[in-house]
Amino acid sequence: MARCMNCQYKFNTKELLAVSVAIHGKGKPCPNCGVNQYMSRKSQFYLSLGNISLLFVLFLPFLIRLSDQEESMR
User: Fold this and answer.
1) How many CB atoms lie within 10 A of CB 34?
2) Coil, strand or helix: which one is 66?
3) How far apart are alpha carbons 15 and 20 in whole angstroms?
4) CA-derived radius of gyration, the chain
5) Phi, psi (5° rounding) for residue 16?
6) Averaged pLDDT, 6-26
7) What are the two backbone dihedrals, phi and then psi, of residue 22, each rounded to the nearest 5 degrees?
8) What would the pLDDT profile of 40-71 be if each residue is shown by its tens digit?
9) What region does 34 belong to: left with phi over 0, alpha with psi -120 to 50, or beta?
10) Which of 35, 36, 54, 69 could pair with 27 as two cysteines, CB 3.0-4.6 Å apart?
């Protein structure tokens, strides 16, 4: 599971899903330290693959990595 880049708090699945659907550019604050967390570029790529296969979505929480800075897919 993903961890906060600042305090190493371990996100649960519900919190990870909230980060993955956050409005682009906003991120979501860590419940422990409050620092905004964003999906890494690699995790954004995995999320786009998850839209293709519903079975892949089951493994998504284990593949998501977070970043303390916003990263663009470009």
Assistant:
1) 10
2) strand
3) 9
4) 11
5) -65, -40
6) 81
7) -65, 150
8) 888 777 777 655 566 666 776 777 777 787 77
9) left
10) 36
**What is the number of residues in the chain?**
74
pTM of the entire structure? 0.61
Residue 31 has pLDDT above 80, yes or no: yes
Is pLDDT above 90 for 7? yes
Tokens found for residue 45: 């790529």
42 alpha-carbon distance from chain centroid: 10
Contacts 24+ apart (CB under 8 A), 31-35: 32/4, 32/7, 33/4, 33/6, 33/7, 33/9, 35/4, 35/5, 35/6, 35/7, 35/68
CB 73 within 8 Å of CB 45: yes
Tokens encoding 31: 């419940």
Closest CA to 61 of 14, 15, 13, 28: 13
- Write out the two tokens for 60: 């998504």
